[in-house]
Specification:
alpha/beta; six-stranded mixed beta sheet; 4 helices; 35% strand
Length: 185
C-alpha cells in the first residue's frame, strides 16, 4: 500500500504538468473546398493587422507559420492560392482548490479544537488561457475555407526562447490538422 501511495504523487504531478502544457485544437473547414489545389500562400495583412497582440509576437507567430507551411511543401508567393490570417483571444482563469480535513471534534476537555480540530485550506491561482486562430482563405474568391484554433495556457514567459518555443508549439499543433483529411497527422 505504501508503494502505491509513493507512485500516485509523481503520476499526478506528471499529469498536471502535461495538461498545463498541451494545446487543445479545434478545426472547421469548407467541405466543398479542394485543398489539393492549394500550393502557394501569402499572409493576409489586413487580418493580421487587427490581431490584438504585440508586433513582436505577431512576427513570432508568422515566422512559425512560415516554417510549418514550408515544411509541408507550400511555397510563399505574390500570387497565392491561399491567404493566411491570425487573431487571438485571451482570458483569465481562476482556479480554487479547497481541502477540508477532519471531523471537527478532537482533543480532550471542554475545547473540542484544543488538540486539533478540523483543518481547512484553500488555494487560489490565476492563469491566462489563450486562443490562437489561424484562418485560411481561398485567395481567388476571398472565402474562408479552413480555420484552426489552439487553446492553451499562456504563462508569463520572460525568457524569449521559451516564449518562441511555446508559440511554435501552438502553431505546429494547429497546423497539424491542415489540410483536412491528410495523412500528415
Amino acid at each position: 500500500m505504501k508503494n502505491i501511495r509513493f507512485l500516485i504523487v509523481p503520476i499526478f504531478a506528471l499529469l498536471l504538468l502535461v495538461s498545463c502544457t498541451s494545446v487543445q485544437v479545434l478545426t472547421d473547414y469548407d467541405r466543398e473546398a479542394n485543398f489539393d489545389t492549394f500550393k502557394t500562400y501569402a499572409f493576409y495583412k489586413t487580418g493580421i493587422d487587427k490581431a490584438q497582440i504585440s508586433d513582436l509576437d505577431k512576427k513570432r507567430i508568422l515566422k512559425a507559420i512560415d516554417s510549418e507551411m514550408s515544411s509541408r511543401g507550400f511555397v510563399k508567393s505574390n500570387e497565392p492560392d491561399i491567404l493566411l490570417s491570425i487573431f487571438t483571444k485571451e482570458r483569465q482563469q481562476v482556479d480554487v482548490y479547497s481541502n477540508y480535513w477532519g471531523s471537527g471534534y478532537y482533543g480532550w476537555g471542554w475545547n473540542p479544537y484544543f488538540w486539533g480540530g478540523p483543518y481547512s485550506n484553500s488555494n487560489v491561482s490565476t492563469r491566462t488561457e489563450g486562443s490562437l486562430y489561424i484562418d485560411i482563405i481561398d485567395a481567388k474568391n476571398k472565402e474562408l475555407v479552413w480555420q484552426g484554433r489552439g487553446v492553451g495556457s499562456l504563462h508569463n514567459i520572460k525568457n524569449i526562447e521559451k516564449k518562441e518555443a511555446r508559440i511554435k508549439e501552438f502553431v505546429a499543433e494547429i497546423l497539424q490538422a491542415y489540410p483536412p483529411g491528410s495523412d500528415r497527422k
